[in-house]
Design brief:
With 350 residues, this protein is an alpha+beta fold. It is built from nine helices and nine strands. Strands 7-6-5-4-8 form a five-stranded antiparallel sheet. Strands 1-2 form a two-stranded antiparallel sheet.
């Protein structure tokens, strides 16, 4: 399972980044901007071939790619330079990577809604663990799946609760699944009248209110809109936390390690869930890239919009490049902090 997850993870990151970069590439070509190199992965280079003005390359590190354009980083007075293209063409080049990420997500989500069965196998997941109760004392955690209790399989969370209440004060053997690994725990139920084990639960399967197959594209658009809206709410809460006493929801942020850990669980559910996972990740990558931060596509878009409104560059190229450099450093620091948080989570969940 681990090897399969690694392969899927590398494929997913490579696919999503290359789709994004292909958006920049195809729009640059249409606008007459010279693409000097279009590469999959990061160097060292395994294979490359120059066709006309563009070098196409496959590199050894398969976790992304890039589209290098003439005049992208500095002003070059050349008819095929990015910096000499019209503002509208540069806006299209900058934003089309995000658009293709959303198009890919729409295609994958459409497939998801199209082939989604009308009923999914029911699984009982632990959503919360009360402090000081038997579950917490034997290291049962939120996001663990209940396989059985005393070898008895349950079809609903309500049945689990009824069973535990009926056996209050008794010792039980509970089998759970955590990160696709089965774990057996022994616990003595408390005499609590409503939750002897001290857990809250939810069901992840059951019947699905599925429409006709031809509604799948519309449902996919709704789902993408919902994910974008949730991300906007998250950003709003993050900004609001700076000016209020409300704690920032930083625990919801994940880096590559957190994404890999989540994918490891998703792989156990089957290819259809992996498809949905890739779609969701494509939306998030597109959303993140369009944020108005220096070094991101959204940051570049802000400068282009200002130039379009003012009729000329509002900020000198040297200053803009410096701001993008600062933004890049900020993103590296942020990635390091998120990765550290992911490692701590991983250690705690082992």
């Amino acid at each position: 399972m681990l090897i399969l997850t690694i392969i899927i993870f590398l494929f997913t990151i490579g696919l999503l980044v290359m789709v994004h970069e292909f958006g920049h590439f195809i729009m640059a070509k249409r606008a007459g901007v010279e693409v000097q190199e279009f590469a999959f992965g990061f160097k060292p280079t395994i294979w490359k071939k120059k066709i006309k003005e563009t070098t196409y390359a496959i590199n050894a590190i398969p976790i992304g790619g890039y589209c290098a354009m003439l005049g992208e980083e500095e002003h070059i007075n050349h008819p095929k330079s990015f910096s000499n293209a019209s503002v509208w063409n540069r806006i299209k080049i900058v934003t089309f990577g995000v658009i293709l990420n959303l198009v890919l997500a729409w295609v994958l989500m459409t497939i998801w809604f199209w082939v989604l069965p009308s009923e999914l196998p029911n699984q009982i997941v632990i959503t919360g663990v009360e402090k000081g109760y038997p579950a917490q004392l034997v290291d049962i955690r939120a996001n663990d799946f209940i396989i059985n209790i005393n070898d008895q399989v349950f079809s609903s969370a309500e049945d689990v609760t009824k069973y535990n209440i009926a056996h209050s004060g008794e010792k039980i053997v509970i089998k759970i699944k955590r990160f696709n690994k089965e774990i057996v725990k022994e616990a003595t139920l408390s005499n609590n009248a409503t939750a002897p084990l001290g857990i809250s639960m939810a069901e992840t399967g059951g019947k699905i209110n599925k429409g006709p197959w031809y509604t799948a594209p519309i449902e996919a658009i709704k789902e993408i809109g919902s994910v974008i809206w949730l991300n906007l709410l998250f950003i709003w809460k993050l900004i609001s936390s700076v000016f209020t006493s409300v704690k920032a929801p930083t625990e919801a942020v994940s880096g590559p390690i957190g994404v890999f850990a989540l994918l490891y669980q998703v792989v156990g559910f089957g290819w259809l869930y992996v498809l949905r996972f890739i779609a969701l990740l494509s939306i998030v990558i597109g959303f993140f890239n369009i944020l108005p931060l220096p070094a991101l596509d959204g940051g570049r878009l802000v400068f282009l919009v200002l130039e379009g409104i003012g009729g000329k560059k509002v900020v000198k190229s040297e200053v803009e490049n410096f701001l993008h450099w600062l933004g890049f450093i900020f993103l590296l620091i942020l990635m390091a902090l998120v990765t550290y948080q992911d490692i701590i989570k991983w250690i705690m969940n082992r």
